[in-house]
Predict the 3D structure of the following.
Amino acid sequence: MMAYLPSLLGGMLIGISAVMLLLLNGRIAGISGIVGRLAQGTNVTTNLAFVAGLMLGPVVFLYVFGQWPDVQITVGWPLVVAGLLVGFGSRMGSGCTSGHGVLGLARLSSRSAVAVATFLTTGAVAVAVMRGAGL
Amino acid sequence: MTRQLLQPIAALVSGTVFGFGLVLSGMLNPARVQGFLDIFGVWDPSLAFVLGGAVMVAFIGVRTMYRLDKPAFDETFQVPTKKRIDAPLVFGSALFGLGWGIGGFCPGPAVASLSVGLTESFLFVAAMLVGMTIHDRIWSRRG
């Protein structure tokens, strides 16, 4: 059970962050939306501030725990395909793991429930196929 | 202080807490994410606690929002109003999930991981921005 504690605490921090953005700025903490709007040049200062904070997170972790967090990436060229799919798909589906996963489920949105069930399923399929192909 | 200043400050603090939460939870690590999605292999259930913890806290925030007239630093709450489950929602989420499984990255962790400085992170985020731009500037404006 203790192995799951950092995940639970980290998840709760993500929740606290989302509540802050919601109750202070009145915005949904959906990362694909924030990054997408930033790329479109909408509400640049505030969106850029959030993205800067996002990148500060690992730096804060470095200062607190004295080491950079683990980022293990095992795939080669498929990573580019993955990036294209994540970018296009999250914009087409109006959200990603944060907007649909965290806030959508918290808002009891049926659209988000469908989105989460869909991307968890295709995500599991992708991993199974990759494992099968030895990638 | 004016809202022009308060909104970015709130966003910066919120973003930092979000980024730190992603790291602490293990979501920043694509290998962990793929372990979570590997339900037919050696399944690592820990990341389910990330979603569980986040939704639990966010639920309280959403309930609080319903009792407030407006957010602290703006005039209105901007939350999605769309109810209909349509093809773009399902098809887009399906494509997103495939990419999430292949790379182990979703947008938040990918962007947050840039400060760790791996070439792969930059490659993924660049491809993701291209994908977003193709959707927003070409796909959604096609005649």
User: Anything to note?
Assistant: The helical segments of chain B are 3-25, 30-37, 46-66, 87-103, 107-112, 119-138. Chain B has one domain: 3-141. Chain B touches chain A through 116 residues (CB under 8 Å).
